[in-house]
Amino acid sequence: xxxxxxxxxxxxxxxxxxxxxxxxxxxxxxxxxxxxxxxxxxxxxxxxxxxxxxxxxxxxxxxxxxxxxxxxxxxxxxxxxxxxxxxxxxxxxxxxxxxxxxxxxxxxxxxxxxxxxxxxxxxxxxxxxxxxxxxxxxxxxxxxxxxxxxxxxxxxxxxxxxxxxxxxxxxxxxxxxxxxxxxxxxxxxxxxxxxxxxxxxxxxxxxxxxxxxxxxxxxxxxxxxxxxxxxxxxxxxxxxxxxxxxxxxxxxxxxxxxxxxxxxxxxxxxxxxxxxxxxxxxxxxxxxxxxxxxxxxxxxxxxxxxxxxxxxxxxxxxxxxxxxxxxxxxxxxxxxxxxxxxxxxxxxxxxxxxxxxxxxxxxxxxxxxxxxxxxxxxxxxxxxxxxxxxxxxxxxxxxxxxxxxxxxxxxxxxxxxxxxxxxx
Length: 424
Description:
CATH topology of the largest domain: Rossmann fold
Binding site for Zn(2+): 254, 257, 356, 415
Cofactor: Zn(2+)
Strand content: 15-25%
Shape: globular
Protein name: Histidinol dehydrogenase
CATH superfamily of the largest domain: Nitrogenase molybdenum iron protein domain
Pfam family, one: Histidinol_dh
CATH architecture of the largest domain: 3-Layer(aba) Sandwich
GO cellular component, one term: cytosol
C-alpha cells in the first residue's frame, strides 16, 4: 500500500480481500508472443489455426456477410432490439455532446504568429467485442457508436466465433462497417498487422480477457490502444445514511461479471459496514449467479471503516476504482472532493448498472488503479488533436532571435541556420 496519503492509521478492515493468487502473467506473455508473431507472419492461416485450437471453430470465412448481419438483427427479440436501440441512442447523444466540446482552435499568439489545432478523426478503428460469460449487448455499443460519432472512416469489429448471434446484431445496429468472427489474441494481432481478409487498423479499443489484454500490450506502438483493462471493479463510499441492502445489491451486481471482480465499501460508519457484510451473505443465498459473485466476493471483496470523511476520500482516491458510487448525506458535495475514479455515480439512485447498459456514459473504463491518471473510453479516444502553425514576417521577427540564440547555446548549428534563414 502506498504511504504518505494520510489514511493508513485511520482505516480498519471489516473484510479484507484475500492475498492475490500467484500470477500466470509470464505464461500468458509467452503464449501471446507466439500468437502475435505467427499471425503477423502467416496471416489468415495462423488466425484459422488458433481459432480452431481455442474456439473449436472451423470457419473458412471470417467476415460476417451483410445477409448474416441482417438475419441476426431479424432474429432479435423485438423488445431486445428496442432496448439495444435505446442504448445506442443514449450513447450516441452523449458522445455527440462530448464531441461538441472539442473545438478547433486558431489564435494569433503574437502579431504574425498564428497557432492552432484541428480535431481529426482516426481513420480506421478496430473494436474488440468480448464473448465472455454473458452476451453483453452493450459492449459493442460502447466501442462502435462513439467511433461513428467521431467520424472514423472505417470501424471493424472482431468477436469470438462462439459469441451469441445477438452480439452480431448489436455490432450491426451500432454501425460497424465490417464484422469478423475472430476472437482472442489472434484477433488483436490480425487488427494490428492486417491479414489477407482482416484490415490493419490505426487503433484498437475494447476489453477482453488476459490474453486479449496482453496482446494489446504487445502490439502497442505500431497501432494505438485505448487502455489495458483488468477485471471489473466497483466501490461505494458511504456515511451513516447508506443503506446496507442497496449497497450489497450493487456490489453483487458487479461481482457477477467475473470471479476476479473487485468490489468494496469504504465507509465512516461501522454499523453500516457490519450490516453490509451480513447483507451480502444473505443475498448470495438467493442470487442465481452466486457461483461467480460469491467467489469474487470471497476473494476480492473489501469493507473498510474510516475514522473520518477525509480518510474515506483519501482511501477511495488510493483505490481509484473503475466504478465509484457515492451514498452520503450530501452526495454532490462528496463527489466534488473525489479525484480518482473511472466513472462516478452520484447519489443512491445512480446505479452502475445503468451506465453498464444504456444511460449514455461509456462503460469501458480504467481499472487496476489506472484512474489515477486516465479516464475511460469516450468520443475523444477516436480523434487526434493535432497542432499547426503559420507565420508572417512580424512573427518571424519575434521568434527567430530567441530560437537562434537557443540553438547556438545548445550547439545545434543546423537549427541555428534554419532559424536565421527566415529572418533574412
